[in-house]
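Mods, move this if it's the wrong board.
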Amino acid sequence: MSPYVIALPILAIVAALLGALLNSPSRIGAAGERLVARWLAKNLPPEEYRIVNDLILPHRDRTTQIDHVVLSRFGIAVIETKTMSGWIFGDGTEGRWTQVIYGRKYRMQNPLHQNALHVRALCRLLGIPAANVDSFVVFMGSARPKTAMPPAVAWGARALGQRIRARREPVFTDAQLAAFEARLRAPDLASTRATQRAHVLGVKATLKDRAEAVQRCPECGAPLVQRMPRSGGTGFLGCSTFPKCRGTRPLAPPPVRPTVRPAAGADTPPADADSHGTILPNP
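Not the wrong board. Structure tokens:
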């Protein structure tokens, strides 16, 4: 058999693996963050704005990852970047948004809620009031909204820049900005492999804690069991010590998950992940 015939299947497998790697959510997300970082550096005047990218900040006993922070005398902008495609449905209050690609629905965490956690962590670290901090979410890629979105959501880097520059009333001194920047550029906040690994472990621990909490009675902490009301209708989770304890929780609705993922290269699948591929819990 010709060596060329043997090599063709091997090359096809290598090409498929490489395509899957290049189109992974983490790589797509990181590429979008690099685009935003470059646009900010090129278009925001350096004499007015200082930009710090990819931070891992302490939050309670764990960490949270921030894509971009823009410092200026007029305030601070904390930015969450989403590189997505398809149609986006959601508003400022819903806990979950929906992404629709080729008729398939994907649930994603409300990025405004996600970024609100980032803002709280930054305010705590720098000792500043939240009133001086703006939270923005910028969508890169071909995604378009299908519902009315809050002003804090920008579609493209240019729209993000317009929102950042809208603040013109000074609230910080140059000395304060220098101190903020020095703290944010400190080695302990840099996104390294070690801090990324610790961040991922912390997020997994948070998800595990929340999953376990849902299975515990909110009144006494005993395990919950599924029950049905005598009159019929929707089931619920009830305390296993009933009738001693009458604590209940509603049954969680099944997650909306597609049976088929989008084809490789056809845009990013659901983006509940940051640029490191970390699944992000609700704040």
